[in-house]
Design goal:
202 residues, globular
């Protein structure tokens, strides 16, 4: 894979990612740096409920993978598109890390192969409910929010120190993203054949 950086809106979050492969996984060693004058809340994990009587855990290897127009796969930690065929009472908002101006965060992410479209709103399908699609690029994506941005409010997660949960009016729709695009050859994505939401063309 070769890299071409795509800047976040306003240049608030710098993303530097180094992809690779280890065994049956694609690997992404990445760092994000806050270039803004305010704190940023950077998506970093998904909360996993613990067994009854036990505390929740944070899964920092959870990813969203969605086929985008032009043969690109969006892959990373960003808000999953909402299902079009049902009403979601409580949307899945990723856990965030608070990043002060000038601060950075280093992470390692391993994504099992073969790649398949993945979302916290959808269970995995049987093999016959996918079709393989040849990819032209993987777009590594990290979501974030700006502190005190209109319509959002961030609160610390009591049971998970160092994590924050962002709420308020339409928190998923108000998220920003930083992206880095990696052209690929010979890589396929298993596209779901159900009512899976994807970005609109254009």
């Amino acid at each position: 894979m070769s890299a071409a950086v795509m800047s976040a809106p306003g240049g608030d979050l710098a993303l530097r990612c180094h992809p690779g492969r280890a065994g049956a996984c694609l690997t992404f060693a990445y760092a994000v740096e806050n270039l803004a004058a305010v704190d940023l809340f950077v998506m970093d994990a998904i909360a996993i409920p613990g067994p009854e009587g036990e505390a929740a855990a944070a899964d920092d290897q959870a990813v969203v993978i969605v086929l985008a127009p032009g043969g690109e796969a969006l892959l990373g930690k960003f808000p999953a598109p909402l299902p079009p065929d049902r009403r979601i009472a409580v949307p899945v908002v990723p856990l965030a890390r608070r990043l002060a101006p000038g601060a950075s965060l280093d992470r390692q992410l391993a994504v099992p192969l073969p790649l398949a479209e993945t979302s916290p709103y959808f269970a995995d399908l049987t093999l016959r409910q996918y079709e393989p699609v040849d990819l032209l690029a993987v777009v590594f994506t990290i979501g974030f929010w700006r502190e005190k941005e209109a319509g959002i409010a961030a609160v610390p997660v009591e049971e998970l120190p160092d994590f924050w949960r962002v709420g308020g009016r339409r928190p998923l729709q108000s998220a920003h993203t930083a992206r880095q695009r990696f052209p690929v050859k010979g890589l396929q994505l298993f596209k779901r054949l159900d009512a899976f939401p994807r970005p609109a063309r254009g």
